[in-house]
Amino acid sequence: MNIVIKCFATLSRFAPAEAEAFSVAPGETVADVVARLGIPPDELKLVFVNGAHAPLATPLADGDRVGLFPAVGGG
After folding, report:
1. Distance in angstroms (rounded) separating the CA atoms of residues 63 and 21
2. Residue 40, burial from CB neighbour count under 10 angstroms (0-12, 13-18, 19+)
3. What's the alpha-carbon Rg for the chain, to the nearest Å?
4. Which domains are delineated in the chain?
5. CA-to-CA dists, residue 4 to 40, 59, 66, 75, angstroms
6. For residues 55, 60, 63 and 64, what is the CA-based torsion angle, rounded to 10 degrees?
7. What percent of the chain has pLDDT over 90?
8. How far apart are CA 14 and CA 48, in angstroms?
9. DSSP letters of 34-66?
């Protein structure tokens, strides 16, 4: 199965070369993918799967689009 991964802002450094066709095994969750990418849990703030807010425990399906966002501060 393949998914599309978008890592935004400061998480862009974790984006895989194959982000448009990232291979996942059946049953893998967003948390599994985040760990595979090496994203520290304290740097991840929001997850979207197919445009909807999703928890890390969300199982992934072929063709899913995953967006990963860091905490963003401003002043």
Report:
1. 9
2. exposed
3. 12
4. 2-70 (3.10.20.30)
5. 20, 14, 6, 32
6. 0
7. 92
8. 16
9. HHHHT--GGGEEEEEETTEE--TTPBP-TT-EE
Report the distance separating Cα 3 and Cα 22, nearest Å. Answer: 5
Three-state secondary-structure class, residue 32: helix
pLDDT tens per residue across span 16-38: 999 999 999 999 999 999 999 99
Confidence of residue 69 (pLDDT cuts 50, 70, 90): very high
Q: How confident is the model at residue 75 (pLDDT cuts 50, 70, 90)?
A: low
